[in-house]
Amino acid sequence: MVTLDSLDRRLIDVYQSGLPVCERPFAVMAARLGSNEAEVLERLARLARLEVLSRVGPVFDHARAGASLLAAVAAPDAQRDAVAEVINRAPGVNHNYLREHDFNLWFVMTAPDEAVLDARLDALEAELRREILRLPMLEGFHIDLGFPIPWDELEAP
């Protein structure tokens, strides 16, 4: 079991959203929490190592930042890793994951605009010599998965 102290809990609770957008966000966070930048960075690194946090960073509205879509490729098991490596090297691919389906490699590709996105997908399709299933988002949903973390009363381990 991981034990979190008050500063860990406040850090998680206060910054599940609203990460400062500035030159030194961790210094701003530290000032608000009554700590210092080095301590906040060390805490975040520790919480990530302990798998309390999976990620620290912004969430962008992709529709305002350019073009993107979910895509999928069918790769035979014997070629799956090689196909995944090619996908991972492609410009604009920000994650790639395995699913149990005929189209088993799924990834998100981004680009500055639709024309560049189409060109990147066409180039990747030609390199892979496989059809890429293109799944553009038709309707967006914002799911705020913030959960309050009690930090004024520490739970006993």
Would you give an account of this structure?
By secondary structure, the protein is of the alpha+beta class. It is built from six helices and four strands, in the order ααααβαββαβ. Strands 2-3-1-4 form a four-stranded antiparallel β-sheet. The chain is elongated, with a radius of gyration of 20 Å.
β-sheet strand percentage:
15-25%
Average pLDDT, all residues: 89
What class do helices, strands and sheet pairing give? alpha+beta
| Order of neighbouring strands in the sheet with most strands | 2-3-1-4
Low-confidence stretches: none
- SSE string, helices as H and strands as E: HHHHEHEEHE
**SS summary, helix count:** 6
Shape: elongated
Share of helix among residues? 25-40%
Provide the gyration radius in Å: 20 Å
For the termini, the CA-CA separation is 8 Å
The count of DSSP E runs of length 2 or more, i.e. the number of strands, is 4
**Biggest β-sheet: count, sense, barrel?**
4 strands, antiparallel
